[in-house]
Specification:
Helix content: 25-40%
Structural class: alpha/beta
Bound molecules: flavin-adenine dinucleotide, iron/sulfur cluster
Largest sheet: 5 strands, parallel
Strand content: 15-25%
Amino acid sequence: MVYSGKKASESNEAPVEPRIGVFICHCGTNIAGSLDVIAVKEYALTLPHVVVSENYAYMCSTPGQNMIHDAIEKDHLTGIVVAACTPRLHEPTFRTATANGGLNPFRFEMANIRDQGSWVHMHDWDGGTEKAKDAVRIAVAKATMLEDLYPMAVPVEHRAMVIGAGVAGIQTSMDLAKAGIETYLIEKEPTIGGRMSQLDKTFPTLDCSQCILSPKMAEAGRMPGIKLYTLAEVEAVEGYIGAFDVTIRRHARGVLTPDEAAARGIVGGGCTGCGDCSQVCPVVRPNSWEFGMAPRKAIYIQHAQVVPLIYTIDFDACVKCGLCETACGTKKAIDLNMEDELFTIKVGTVILATGYETFPIEEKSEWGYKLYDNVISSLEFERLICASGPTIGHLIRPSDGETPKSVGFVLCAGSRDNTGIGKPYCSRFCCMYSLKHAHQVIEKIPGCRAYIFYMDIRSFGKAYEEFYYRIQEEGAKFIRGRVAQIQELPNKNLLVVAEDTLLGMPVEIEVDLVVLAAAVQPTAETEVVRRLFGVSCSADKWLLEAHPKLDPCGTTTAGVYLAGVCQGPKDIPDTVAQAEGAASAASIPIHSGQVELEPYYAQCVEKLCAGCGMCVGQCPYSALSMIVADDGRTVMTVTAAKCKGCGTCGGFCPGGAIRMQHFTSPQILAQIDAFFLGGEQ
Ligand SMILES: Cc1cc2nc3c(=O)[nH]c(=O)nc-3n(C[C@H](O)[C@H](O)[C@H](O)COP(=O)(O)OP(=O)(O)OC[C@H]3O[C@@H](n4cnc5c(N)ncnc54)[C@H](O)[C@@H]3O)c2cc1C
Ligand code: SF4
Ligand code: SF4
């Protein structure tokens, strides 16, 4: 940014009369098609202190920005108003244009006449025009009172944290570590890998999921740049971009790693993954990783490829008999009295990669999930068809263990569903994995019929449409229509009742097994993490990116980025692409070494502060504290880097001692007056 850099308080010049330039954007026809931009431009010229008023097709374009730049120089402007879209989209653009003209960039104010104007009053030309005039008048009132502000530079820790270690979190961590950034990878489960490690094959190439993921898991587990914490969750967050203090709770695992054993002076000790403990453990529980379709002991690993290869005790199940301790012998890896650990890590940037879970499909009771034995979910299918699964890859009917001779796949089970029970959005990978599932039953079980009940097949990715053709050629039967009901027959077969919308008639097909392609949704833990980091979410609760097209990895919280399905459903190629993008975005501030923070923070006007301290507890970001001032009085002070400018304290202080930069009381009152008095202040 090119501006003088001189602070207002350093200036020797007498205050000058405000000279405001107003620039109205057409946004193509987005604005100009629904309101009279020429009338708004002419109206602006009638407002006090406005010396220039212009309109242009795209103010954000280079010629549009040059108009601002040129007018600042030619007309000696002191403030700029752009009436266009949202500050979220183009505030940085117009600030830069303002600075390029030689003005402090914070002498710019935006009037949103598109999203809050032309778009909501699309069919009310006169009303939309009047509202745009109001918005411009209010913005001009503030622009006359703007002052020079200066961003605050804060140093950035040379460390990052990735929360969630599915394929997204693993990829992001590896990229960051390879870029020389010390990376903390936090995973709530005992192993990394996420959902991808539960899959058998992957569409459209049909390569084995574990075969492509396991090497990555192993590499991430041993990379010197990655510090991995499994069975760990975020407990608290303080700080800001550059210096987040993240408190981690590491749940008691009950088993020591070799390093932890060494730290306790146990020479050559720690878990080697031999499994002797699990052999002797008398407690048997359903293995939740196999969706209860296989047993596990109270001391267990989820599957053979876990990283780290360290056993875990389920303390809710453990009876503390001590048999495992004896079996473990000289390795002395077992600590039945281990407790949770809390520790805090300081990092510069954070990437959320907390993934997804499946929608509780039993809520759609018409399909009989959890009511009928032979109705299973798509993830259960993945485990049953997988060679490392509970049936060593033999697909069976849960009711009798027989091999099915016909399987019905119900797509959009809870997705694209506006009934109130289900999700209105498309889960994006279910069409493709259901095609994969149909292929797997046709390939593995000679003569088995596969029926696919679908609304439309969404095969949008590279080589996906070709995969769809292939499955049709392999003989899968496609029935276009939503399944209304599934009925269980006395022989435990299932009658799938649907409408074939291509034939325009109802159909009833009897099958041995039904697989529901359940919708996906954000996990409950994602909501906890979202709140801790102050990240927004969309109406459907997926984490919200800073901009859907131009900043898909960023969030509105500076220094926090998104990777993978926590931002919205996406398949593995898209997940990995976003993970690489997030790593790149998160490494920029770290490699820059410092970032500039918005100067929108609170300030204490010491002479007005009564020292009551009541504001301190109000700040949600712990930005306020009490100090002894030079004159010996106790007053409040603000840690500017922690302040998010929310204004809570400013509104709270009974003595009016807190001033919010860029949102001062006089500025806000001027805007209110401009609205109510129509400019006659
Ligand atoms: C049945 C089925 C079949 C599929 N088949 C394919 C396929 O063939 N090809 C394909 O491209 N895609 C497929 N997919 C999609 C694929 O599963 C996803 O694209 C991929 O797993 C997304 O990875 P992720 O890392 O974003 O999320 P996840 O795999 O969900 O990983 C998220 C990780 O974060 C952890 N976590 C969550 N919250 C926290 C927290 N608060 N603290 C710490 N850790 C946390 C979780 O434990 C998990 O390990 C399939 C999906 C399903 C349901
Ligand atoms: S102490 Fe707990 S984990 Fe160990 S063998 Fe006994 S029940 Fe199993
Ligand atoms: S404005 Fe006040 S309450 Fe809000 S973050 Fe800043 S100091 Fe805290």
